[in-house]
Amino acid sequence: MQRIVVLAGGIGGARFLRGLQSAAPEADITVIGNTGDDIHLFGLKICPDLDTVMYTLGGGIHEEQGWGRAGETFAVKEELAAYGVEPQWFGLGDRDVATHLVRTQMLGAGYPLSAVTEALCARWRPGVRLLPMTDDRVETHVAVEEGGERKALHFQEYWIRLRAGPDAQAVVPVGADQAEPAPGVLEAIAEADVVLFPPSNPVVSIGTILAVPGIREAIAEAGVPVVGLSPIVGDAPVRGMADKVLAAIGVRSTAAAVARHYGSGLLDGWLVDTVDAGAVDEVEEAGIRCRAVPLMMSDPEATARMASDALALAEEVRA
Ligand code: GDP
Ligand code: CA
């Protein structure tokens, strides 16, 4: 049985994973999820990326939106607003609140996030082993200028309240340098046959996972093909603010620049969209095998083809 390890953020990671499951139904898939977007609000511990993967693979996701629960209502949010409770920019749905109550209660009882995630997944049966990158607290902060003042904001505040409007001057995964990989993370990488980077955000999703000491090294040393798919198509992110956070770390928003940013020390293969076929040579000159294929996850079939193409490229670099 093929053992596949996937580093995943939220929407991009989750949708790709669904394609991977249909392209490789027999594979044993371990997902290492980003927890740098996690935030404590209203006394609850919120893990947006883990939940997006869990709900998407478990059939509970709001399909069009890409995050949150299907059939969601917002009575709790309205009641909190009636009390004037801040922040009002974060919309936690009623169904979602139940997930967060379970998580927060278990964390309060002393269970690590990895055990809590496993417990939540017992309900959702995502068909993958979903591991948080770490059980330790890591929070991505974004430095911006607001009203002539330089401020560090939680990533969620930058993304949701400010809609990534101001330029990001720096992106810092606070706490990552002190964090340890969650139980099972390094073992899964060491036992993997292939490691995939879905088209997740290279800075605040995959970059944050790689910032946990030991994870990048384990991937580089695993001696198996590492293949990624570009989240940048036609020199812009397909959705989200990857361009803003790439600029903050001095990387251009092109498929080739993102591949070079990961580097040939980490990445063996890279898929770019057919509109970026002109970038293939630049990526290969950097020592990374590159192919141009359609990379829009417009429907389940197209997404499954992207996953097959990634696995095929992995076999090519293995040979
Ligand atoms: P988030 O945590 O919800 O932001 O999700 P991820 O980090 O997993 O994925 C976000 C990235 O997915 C963004 O940079 C998008 O450009 C990328 N993305 C979303 N949809 C597609 C798609 O259909 N094709 C490609 N190639 N990238 C996509
Ligand atoms: Ca995210």
Automatic annotation (TrEMBL):
<comment type="similarity">
    <text>Belongs to the CofD family.</text>
</comment>
<protein>
    <recommendedName>
        <fullName>Phosphoenolpyruvate transferase</fullName>
        <ecNumber>2.7.8.28</ecNumber>
    </recommendedName>
</protein>
<comment type="subunit">
    <text>Homodimer.</text>
</comment>
<comment type="pathway">
    <text>Cofactor biosynthesis; coenzyme F420 biosynthesis.</text>
</comment>
<dbReference type="InterPro" id="IPR038136">
    <property type="entry name" value="CofD-like_dom_sf"/>
</dbReference>
<comment type="function">
    <text>Catalyzes the transfer of the phosphoenolpyruvate moiety from enoylpyruvoyl-2-diphospho-5'-guanosine (EPPG) to 7,8-didemethyl-8-hydroxy-5-deazariboflavin (FO) with the formation of dehydro coenzyme F420-0 and GMP.</text>
</comment>
<keyword id="KW-0460">Magnesium</keyword>
<keyword id="KW-0808">Transferase</keyword>
<feature type="binding site">
    <location>
        <position position="51"/>
    </location>
    <ligand>
        <name>7,8-didemethyl-8-hydroxy-5-deazariboflavin</name>
    </ligand>
</feature>
<dbReference type="InterPro" id="IPR010115">
    <property type="entry name" value="FbiA/CofD"/>
</dbReference>
<dbReference type="Pfam" id="PF01933">
    <property type="entry name" value="CofD"/>
</dbReference>
<dbReference type="InterPro" id="IPR002882">
    <property type="entry name" value="CofD"/>
</dbReference>
<dbReference type="GO" id="GO:0043743">
    <property type="term" value="F:LPPG:FO 2-phospho-L-lactate transferase activity"/>
</dbReference>
